[in-house]
């Protein structure tokens, strides 16, 4: 008998959920139903107790739901069908039959939330909701503000790490194959060694032949790659700043892709609506994606181009003798 549950947010929660759900996931894989990437089955990506069903047809989706229903009924676990939703991709003009779970219809919608991110029928994340910036903001502006590395850095690090792991083990089959590739590889080819050479050149590192003869240990290589990547992307930030208007007023920091920008770091840690609002507006003003009153007036003659804060401030200055002091201060603070 299970007499004690799992604490919300505990470290073991996700691992224990995976163990518990594993029978369901194995059954879905063995059924052959659901979506695939090439010959790799991906019918039910799962995080803890959050299972998403991916299928190329309504029949496959319903089949997977039936498998889940069978196992949850056997394990005496309840899933609320009214809280589950289905999003259809590329389904315009086609007749979609209803999906059911435990004899209840699952709501078919244009948008649903999965793992905190809204998924829609265009299969695009809503960037403005994630970080308060619209889609026309330059990518480098987003990376600089968030302090997040572009996926290109992760891929480059993986290539260079894998390369040095092979080089560091002479006499192995992998190292011999790598040596052979260096000798016979065509510079226009798309093999692994060409990708390594391009990545080494990109970060101003020496050629693969040099490192074959002079391999570095793990810590030396990690430190060297880290320095070179930091230098390269800092230069990229400065170069893009000269070209992109949304980067014009953003100060490039010493470590732009590993630390959140001061614009967001300056927001107080207190969890109140005012600080959150400041954290949303500051980056939009600095990236020139905030629509000011003067810009609205260009497209709508009914709109007063004068800044509303300017009007309120002068209203308080003119009327401060007659307005209660606390009221005037509240307006100025707003």
UniProtKB/TrEMBL annotation:
This is Reverse transcriptase domain-containing protein. Residues 1-119 form the Reverse transcriptase domain. Pfam families: RVT_1. It comes from Mytilus edulis (Blue mussel). The lineage of its organism: Eukaryota, Metazoa, Spiralia, Lophotrochozoa, Mollusca. It comes from the Eukaryota.
């Amino acid at each position: 008998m299970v007499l004690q549950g799992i604490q919300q947010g505990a470290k073991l929660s996700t691992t224990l959920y995976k163990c518990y759900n594993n029978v369901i996931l194995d059954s879905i894989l063995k059924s052959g139903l659901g979506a695939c990437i090439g010959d790799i089955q991906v019918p039910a990506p799962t995080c803890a107790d959050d299972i998403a069903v991916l299928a190329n047809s309504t029949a496959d989706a319903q089949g997977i739901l039936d498998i889940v229903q069978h196992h949850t009924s056997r394990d005496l676990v309840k899933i609320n069908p009214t809280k589950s939703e289905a999003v259809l991709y590329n389904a315009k003009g086609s007749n979609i039959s209803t999906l059911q779970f435990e004899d209840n219809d699952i709501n078919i919608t244009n948008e649903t939330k999965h793992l905190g991110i809204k998924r829609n029928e265009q299969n695009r994340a809503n960037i403005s909701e994630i970080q308060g910036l619209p889609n026309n903001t330059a990518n480098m502006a987003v990376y600089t503000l968030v302090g997040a590395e572009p996926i290109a850095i992760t891929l480059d690090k993986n290539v260079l790490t894998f390369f040095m792991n092979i080089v560091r083990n002479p006499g192995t089959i992998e190292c011999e194959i790598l040596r052979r590739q260096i000798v016979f590889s065509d510079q226009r080819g798309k093999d692994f060694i060409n990708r390594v050479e391009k990545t080494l050149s990109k970060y101003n590192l020496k050629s693969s032949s040099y490192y074959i003869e002079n391999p570095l240990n793990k810590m030396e290589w990690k430190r060297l790659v880290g320095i070179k990547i930091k230098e390269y992307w800092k230069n990229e930030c400065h170069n893009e700043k000269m070209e992109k208007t949304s980067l014009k007023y953003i100060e490039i920091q010493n470590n732009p892709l590993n630390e959140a920008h001061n614009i967001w770091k300056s927001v107080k840690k207190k969890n109140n609506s005012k600080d959150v609002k400041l954290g949303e507006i500051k980056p939009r003003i600095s990236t020139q994606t905030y629509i000011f009153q003067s810009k609205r007036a260009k497209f709508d003659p009914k709109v007063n181009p004068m800044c509303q804060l300017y009007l309120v401030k002068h209203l308080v200055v003119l009327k401060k003798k007659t307005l209660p002091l606390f009221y005037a201060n509240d307006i100025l603070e707003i």
